[in-house]
């Protein structure tokens, strides 16, 4: 089995008047070596399974762990509906089969294996968050909260409570762990940070940007420098059952969302245009996202998209595509490496959603004026794009990158038109 070691990243803090142009040298962190005890998060998928096998064949003592999330409540509440068909996902009825595959894999390879029950934490930190955000007219990313609060949070806490000790925690994420050679933002702190993977088509850094530096100290991603095609080739050569599986879908499909929101009735309301003309009726604001075009149920002489959602008036506002552009945003609930905030304006790149390309921007502390009645979580930050961005959605994450390394990120609170 081939094992690929991370290399040094040769990527220098410069200041330009009152603006920080962050540029540093980062050192990729060593991978686990023979004899190290490594905890591996197993999902039943090919990436995590191959990760465990690579480490085992390298001479590490591997301990597998799977988080149990599915409690069946969504299906139970809709058991009489033949419309509910759950897709393969990290949260779903396929969990039992995933655990079966992980059990068989670990048994055949002499790997200690544990299943950790984090259903309660998942429901509180992910599912309830997901529903609350949508019902407040926002577009959440549950995978981000799951990684921060469950996979790199509750699951590791449970392992600690079980008295299991380990040198490293590894997963099948496509990302790298690095440290700057100098302190960040002019400080003396050299925190563990997240850098992009070699396979940019599979890069998952956006999903894990909120994992704190102190946790990242023990985290490693053995697939960091591998291509997905190479992972699949090695998995097939090793005759891994996981190599024959389809990749999991997103957290939730439309049919799943209807089931999840069945705990209380949706409140229909008007769909309007920017001038206030009523175009139709919506079935509840939790069923709509910024930028959405399909499933609106209105007829117009031109293509229309969801422009915004007015929670107080229970309105879904539609507009032409070009009217969805914004030149900036305000984000709060920010995280910074080692909690060190920049003291001046920062020039960097930002991603406003997983599928968007990083774009140049300027980041400054935002001081609300008397007219801004928003209740922000922590210090809010203003991000101004060098070029307008389409369909900026409150609730999504704005993640900051420099030289391919995440230097911070927060939750979009409002859009600057």
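Q: What amino acid sequence fits the structure above?
A:
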């Amino acid at each position: 089995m081939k094992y690929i070691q991370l290399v040094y990243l040769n990527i220098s803090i410069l200041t330009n008047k009152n603006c920080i142009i962050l540029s540093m040298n980062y050192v990729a962190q060593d991978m686990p070596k023979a004899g190290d005890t490594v905890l591996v998060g197993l999902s039943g998928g090919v990436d995590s399974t191959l990760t465990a096998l690579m480490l085992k064949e390298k001479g590490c003592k591997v301990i597998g762990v799977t988080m149990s999330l599915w409690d069946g409540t969504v299906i139970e509440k809709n058991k009489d509906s033949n419309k509910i068909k759950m897709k393969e996902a990290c949260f779903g009825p396929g969990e039992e089969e995933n655990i079966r595959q992980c059990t068989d894999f670990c048994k055949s390879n002499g790997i200690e294996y544990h299943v950790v029950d984090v259903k309660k934490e998942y429901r509180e930190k992910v599912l309830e968050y997901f529903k609350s955000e949508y019902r407040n007219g926002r577009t959440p990313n549950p995978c981000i909260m799951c990684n921060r609060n469950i996979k790199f949070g509750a699951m590791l806490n449970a392992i600690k409570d079980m008295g299991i000790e380990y040198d490293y925690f590894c997963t099948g994420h496509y990302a790298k762990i690095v440290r700057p050679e100098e302190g960040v933002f002019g400080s003396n702190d050299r925190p563990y940070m997240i850098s992009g993977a070699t396979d940019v088509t599979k890069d998952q850094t956006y999903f894990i940007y909120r994992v704190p530096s102190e946790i990242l100290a023990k985290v490693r991603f053995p697939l960091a420098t591998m291509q997905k095609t190479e992972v699949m080739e090695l998995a097939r050569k090793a005759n891994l059952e996981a190599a024959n599986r389809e990749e999991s879908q997103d957290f939730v499909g439309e049919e799943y969302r209807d089931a999840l929101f069945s705990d209380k009735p949706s409140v229909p309301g008007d769909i309007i245009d920017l001038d206030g003309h009523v175009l139709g009726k919506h079935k509840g604001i939790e069923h709509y996202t910024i930028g959405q075009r399909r499933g609106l149920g209105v007829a117009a002489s031109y293509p229309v998209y969801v422009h915004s959602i007015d929670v107080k008036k229970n309105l879904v506002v539609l507009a032409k595509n070009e009217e969805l552009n914004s030149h900036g945003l305000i984000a709060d609930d920010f995280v910074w490496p080692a909690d060190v905030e920049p003291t001046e304006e920062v020039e960097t790149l930002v991603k406003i959603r997983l599928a968007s390309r990083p774009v140049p921007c300027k980041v400054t502390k935002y001081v609300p004026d008397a007219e801004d009645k928003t209740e922000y979580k922590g210090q809010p930050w203003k991000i101004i794009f060098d070029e307008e961005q389409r369909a900026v959605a409150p609730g999504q994450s704005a993640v900051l990158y420099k030289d391919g390394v995440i230097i911070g990120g927060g939750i979009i609170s409002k859009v600057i038109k």
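Q: And what stands out in the fold?
A: The mean pLDDT is 90.
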